[in-house]
TrEMBL record:
This is Aspartate-semialdehyde dehydrogenase. Belongs to the aspartate-semialdehyde dehydrogenase family. It catalyses: L-aspartate 4-semialdehyde + phosphate + NADP(+) = 4-phospho-L-aspartate + NADPH + H(+). InterPro entries: Asp_semialdehyde_DH, Asp_semialdehyde_DH_beta, NAD(P)-bd_dom_sf, Semialdehyde_DH_NAD-bd, Semialdhyde_DH_dimer_dom. The keyword Oxidoreductase applies. NCBIfam families: asd_B, PRK14874.1. It comes from Peiella sedimenti. Substrate binds at residues 156, 234. It holds the Pfam family Semialdhyde_dh.
C-alpha cells in the first residue's frame, strides 16, 4: 500500500527535513506534493533524487491526498488542518496549535503509540522539539521506577526558531569577527557568543511559553502526576537541542540500572564513558535519528535521584523524524489508508 502525501511548509527547515526523511525511511509514497505560501509557489525542493515544484497551499485540492504533514506555524495549522481533515486526509501537525486539544493525540511513537487510535478530528500533533527529546529518555525510566519530580534546563539551538534566527547567528558571528555590529532581530539580545535565558514569550507567572509547553506536553504523554519545572535557554548552536535533566523517583533506581534501562529503550542511544569526551555534544547528533543520553549519575542530595544529559537533532527527532514516524505508526496500525484516515475503536 502506498500513499498520496502532501507536505505543507515544504520550503522551511522542518519541511525540507520531512521530505528528506520520507525518502530516507522509504515511506510508501505514490505521489508527493510540496505546498507552501503563494510567494514560494514554483520554488523547487528536493525529494530523493528528484526535485518537486512547490504549489500554492490556498489552491490545492486536499481530497486528492491521503496524508498531510504540516510545518507552517500555528496560524496556518489552525486555519487549514480542520479543512484538510474534512477533505479526508490524515493530518500530522508540527505546530503547537492542537497539542493540548483533548480530541487530538500528541504522539511520540516510542512513548505513547497507543494514542494513534484516538484522532477523533483526523489530526495528530507532533510535540515541541525539546519535549520530544525529554520524553524519549524519561518514559523508560518512569516505567522502571516512576518519576515524581523533574528539573530540566534546556540548551536550544537557533534552528528551533527558524531560518531567520539561523541567519542571525551566522551574520552576527561574521560581523563580530569583522568588528561590525549586527543588531538582533530574531532575538531580544545578541545570540552570537552569548546565551539567552528566554525561549518564547513570557507568561504572567514568569515562565515562558516554551517552558509551559514542555510540562504540559510531558503531562499529556507520560504522566500528569510528574512535578516538572523547566528553564529554557537559547544557545549559539545551529542545530541540536540539549537538556540537563535531574530526576527524583518513587522507587530506587541507581545510575547503572538506569543505563541498562536506557540501553534497551527504543530510540535511545547511551554514550556515557567516564573520560574526556565520553559524552555526546549537539554537533555530533546532527543528522542522527536517536536521542542520545550521557552523564548518567546518582544525585546524592535527594533520595532516589539521578542526573543525566540528553541531546537530539531538533529538526529530526524534535520535528520531522517524529512526524514521519507517526505516519509509519498510522500505516502499521491500519489507521492510515490509501483513501485517507479511518477511525478504529479505542481498546
Amino acid at each position: 500500500m502506498s500513499y498520496r502525501v502532501a507536505v505543507v511548509g515544504a520550503t522551511g527547515n522542518v519541511g525540507r527535513e520531512m521530505l528528506a526523511i520520507l525518502d530516507e525511511l522509504q515511506f510508501p509514497v505514490s505521489e508527493l506534493h510540496a505546498l507552501a505560501s503563494r510567494k514560494s509557489q514554483g520554488l523547487e525542493v528536493a525529494f530523493g533524487d528528484r526535485t518537486v515544484k512547490c504549489q500554492n497551499l490556498e489552491r490545492f485540492e486536499f481530497s486528492q491526498v491521503d496524508l498531510v504533514l504540516m510545518s507552517a506555524g500555528g496560524d496556518v495549522s489552525r486555519e487549514w488542518a480542520p479543512k484538510i481533515a474534512a477533505a479526508g486526509a490524515l493530518v500530522i501537525d508540527n505546530s503547537s496549535a492542537f497539542r493540548m486539544d483533548p480530541d487530538v493525540p500528541l504522539i511520540v511513537p516510542e512513548v505513547n503509540p497507543h494514542a494513534i487510535h484516538e484522532a477523533k478530528k483526523r489530526i495528530i500533533a507532533n510535540p515541541n522539539c525539546t519535549t520530544a527529546a525529554l520524553v524519549v529518555a524519561l518514559k523508560p525510566l518512569h516505567d522502571a521506577a516512576r518519576v515524581t519530580r523533574a528539573v530540566v534546563s534546556t540548551y536550544q539551538s537557533v534552528s528551533g526558531t527558524g531560518k531567520a534566527a539561523t541567519d542571525e547567528l551566522w551574520n552576527q558571528t561574521k560581523g563580530l569577527y569583522g568588528l561590525n555590529e549586527v543588531a538582533p532581530k530574531a532575538y531580544p539580545k545578541q545570540i552570537a557568543f552569548n546565551v539567552l535565558p528566554q525561549c518564547g514569550d513570557f507568561r504572567d507567572d514568569g515562565y515562558t511559553v516554551e517552558e509551559a509547553k514542555m510540562w504540559d506536553e510531558t503531562h499529556k504523554m507520560v504522566d500528569p502526576g510528574i512535578r516538572l519545572t523547566v528553564t529554557c535557554v537559547r544557545v549559539p548552536v545551529f542545530v541540536g537541542h540539549s537538556l540537563s535533566v535531574n530526576l527524583e523517583f518513587e522507587s530506587p533506581l541507581d545510575a547503572e540500572d538506569a543505563r541498562d534501562v536506557l540501553r534497551e529503550a527504543p530510540g535511545v542511544m547511551v554514550v556515557d564513558k567516564h573520560e574526556d569526551g565520553g559524552w555526546i555534544s549537539p554537533i555530533e547528533c546532527v543528522g542522527e535519528f536517536a536521542t542520545f543520553v550521557s552523564r548518567i549519575r546518582n544525585d546524592p542530595t535527594i533520595e532516589n535521584g539521578l542526573s543525566l544529559w540528553v541531546v537530539s537533532d531538533n529538526l529530526r527527532k524534535g520535528a520531522a523524524l517524529n512526524a514521519v514516524q507517526i505516519a509509519q505508526l498510522a500505516h502499521e496500525e491500519g489507521v492510515l489508508t490509501s483513501r485517507g484516515y479511518r477511525t478504529l475503536a479505542v481498546g
